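3.2 Worked example (two chains)
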Amino acid sequence: MLPAYVLVAPAILASLVFLYIPMIFSGYWSFTKYNGLAPAEWVGLANYTELFRDPEFIKALWNTVLFVLFGMGIGPLLGLFTALLLNQKVRFRAFFRTAYFLPVMTSLVVVATIWKILLNEHGIINQILGVFGVPALGWLGSTTAALPAVAVTSIWQGFGFETVVFLAALQAIPRDYYDAAKVDGATYRQQLRHVTLPGLRPTIMFVYIIGIIGSFQVFDQIFVMTNGGPINSTRTIVFDLYDRFYSLQLGEASAVAYVLLVILATLSFIQIRLFEGTR
């Protein structure tokens, strides 16, 4: 048993030092007024109550919810549709799989920078739209268009992951099920409803749980493309957290982190129960 403990000890030690101990300190700071310089002053739940009175935090929370709804309403469906297409007998399937997955392996900072150039008022997207008579728009400078533009960037960067995951799950469904459905006269739509989607249920749960957690933690794209602007129209929860840490409001920032933790834990629990209830 001793060799086993020796092998797992580094992982446990790293988790304690870099995860659990910082979480404990952050949890304590969330109940204090603390700037990292002066001693922490206990304020109880004041940080949490102030957060939900703070217009900037409410705006960040609302922006994050919109970002999640937009991204998770399109990304997984686009990934599933692409996976269904690639699951057919098409030529160059390996090439297309690689092409779709390539953005996933690219740094978010690089992707965000490229899309920032594309979405520029004189960028290629406005030039293409101009061919059809659509006037040029400063996508990232508009309070109404900036958040959807960032969400589109995230969808483009991430749906390749969902495509590969769904494709692997599709290929794991026994072909006998489809053969039996065809013998019974099932159409493609009926096969999709009664064979494919039930077979993908665990994968769908995985994709949505991971996707929602990732969407609520969006930061890189916001920081590079808009820096939370214009007028906080793309300010998200994690950007709000970063801004408070940067301003040395460590107590409030820790409270934001724990609010996010509660939101993600609650949503993950609800999703798991919903999918378990449909079995």
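3.2.1 Second chain
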Amino acid sequence: MATVKDIAIAVGVSVATVSNVLNGKPNVGYIIRRKVLQAAKQLGYRPNRAAQAMRTGRTRAIGLVLPDLTNPFFPELAQAVENTARSLGLLVCLIDSQGRADGESDGFALLMQHAVDGIIWCPLGPRPPAALKKLDRPVVLIDRPGPGYAVVHSNYQMGGRLLAQYAQLMGHRRVGLLSGPENLESARQRREGFVNAAPDEIDIAWEVNVGFDGVLTPQAVDALEHRRNATLIVAGNDLIAISAIRWLSEHGVKVPDDVSITGFDNIRWTDVVTPRLTTIAQPVGAIGKKAVELMHGSMSGEKIPARHTIFDVGLIERDSVRRIGRR
């Protein structure tokens, strides 16, 4: 098995330089860093992480705390994070909060016990768990904005605007909203982007808030049953939209012939549900990659500013919206 000394000989640098590169320290130039990493890969070098942790006090493990792995969006996000982390030699410890505040708090406590070097966190709500206050490691928020942290997320207001523009293009003026949770900034921004895009062109016939888990409340079912002349239903995410399509189909209402529906996220189910769902696509891979890069930079000694990194989104047009009238 290759050693640090073998890599140093192959590249023509000191053992200390190789060690700095493999431990993610920033005091090595880009060219030398690349040569060391290439040599390590070619020689099949596998670091002894346990020994490194004993020596440096760093585990090169990061926590990933997600709200609910039954929502298909989050496994895709977890995969994006893990792919980038693995390429940087980082281990990801995944916590599923299962939609519960105590699950989130317990997850943070468990990650602290395992001495992770930092945590990438998608919050359940606006209040951080008590365990977070005791954490002396960097935290990067992902997908859901929040104050006081570095955050990586999509341009939700842009997504709302795109849906409003598309609604106008397809001739829809009376719209029902199955908005996401009121306590989540990401849900509020989606709604605001839509409502504020064309207030004189689009009439909001009704609005009900639904959890991002897609479980329809009695109020949501009542809104779907009566619809109040809404020709288009704009859902806060894809799970809500798919649940609405299923309920309408079970009650003899055809989508999009009788009413149109849009989603948000572009989870993989959107292309297999009938009808295929028109939605907003988030660049999940880029979001996960950037969050890990910020965390890795912090672990290497860089200071992460508490600012937002925001990625543009795009409209994916499929079969769930019918054109009405002429535009």
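3.3 Remarks
DSSP finds twelve helices and twelve strands in the chain.
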